[in-house]
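Journal club prep — side note

Before the paper discussion, L.F. wants everyone to see what a predicted structure for a comparable chain looks like in token form. Sequence:
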Amino acid sequence: MDFSHLHCHTQFSMLDGAASISQLVKKSKNEGMPAIAITDHGNMFGVPKFVNEAHKQGVKPIIGCEFYITPSGMDDKKDTTRYHQVLLAKNMTGYRNLSKLCSLGYTDGMYYKPRIDKPTLAEHAEGLIATTCCIASEINQKIIKEGEGQARPLFEWYLNVFGDDYYIELQRHGLKDQNRCNEVLVKWAKEYNVKMVATNDSHYVEEEDSEAHDILLALQTNADIDDPNRFRFTDDNNNLNTDYYLKSPQEMEELFSDQPAAIDNTNEIIEKVDDIDLSSELLLPHYSIPDEYDSMDDYLRRLTYDGARERYGEITQEISERIEQELTIIREMDFVGYFLIVQDFTTEARRRDVFVGPGRGSAAGSIVAYCLGIINIDPLEHDLLFERFLNPERVSPPDIDIDFDDSGRQEVIDYVVEEYGRNNVAQIVTYGTMKAKTSI
């Protein structure tokens, strides 16, 4: 019987997941699983890498996220109560809703963690598959703390929102509370005719990785490894629980031998899910040119030659030929708007007395960037090649590294947001990784 894992955390569940995406996908393939899901906590940072790696290794990627749900509303910045909720994207509509919910969690619901609430979830439920999730879900917590009767209306709410795309999720990690929840959920499955799926709350790839994961949790909570009261994945006897790894299909079948349909139903979800293509064309914000110019090409040419006269004084044949060569390539590769936008905010930065770095990287090979004032390095003087920056035979978007002084950097960001619209501006996340020396 085919089985695929639908509840998996990668290293992008920050300081909580200890599974590298490549190893996670590799084990899935080696174990003969047709698909695997990514359900990191509160974010979708790892999705592009995950999808690319799954396609590379011939495994179907299931895009998901384990959201933090706040019962008191996203505007409430006092209540720290939050529950877990797994959502999977069925199709591109579902992927867009997943992305929207994830963004709203950070922009509107952030309070220690990125949070969404149930009204927001219901508003963006189209194209999504939901489950009752793990022991930390609102339904399971209500069963544990308030009983079946109090949890039932909540279960019915989710069922009403998601219909046939709502599944009862069964996990077995040897916990009494979890077993108690499962008894109620199995009963509801029959009563409401809702299908069950078996999952394992995977946070690392192999069972022997549990100790490394435990250390990661200590780092997350800034706790001493020997602190008996720190947060850990433990069993009912407070010993380290090593059960949160990517189990083989055979292990899962044995674990759920009394519920074989829960194993088989993972295939139903896989069949429902489209293999979503995340590739897209580069989209640039609209740049408004003065009324007297017919096109952005004309305006870029004018700014470039004005800058060339200011930089060089006399425009020689060498300068003119280099400018024309670059302008032709920029126009043919459809990056005119990009150059205009970058020159706009670097010019504005200097106007506001914000120090702008002289330039670095391959962009220093562009005379157009030099004439526009984007960089302060003359590519002719230093015999730098434009083709290292933009090359028609190697189509890739330009990447101009701009440095601003610390005191003025935010002012420039605020200008870009105001000028081009908040929905058109994003800051790019960077990740720090811990190698052996740093870890020790």
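L.F.'s comment for the group: The first helix runs from residue 21 to 30. Keep this in mind when we get to the figures.
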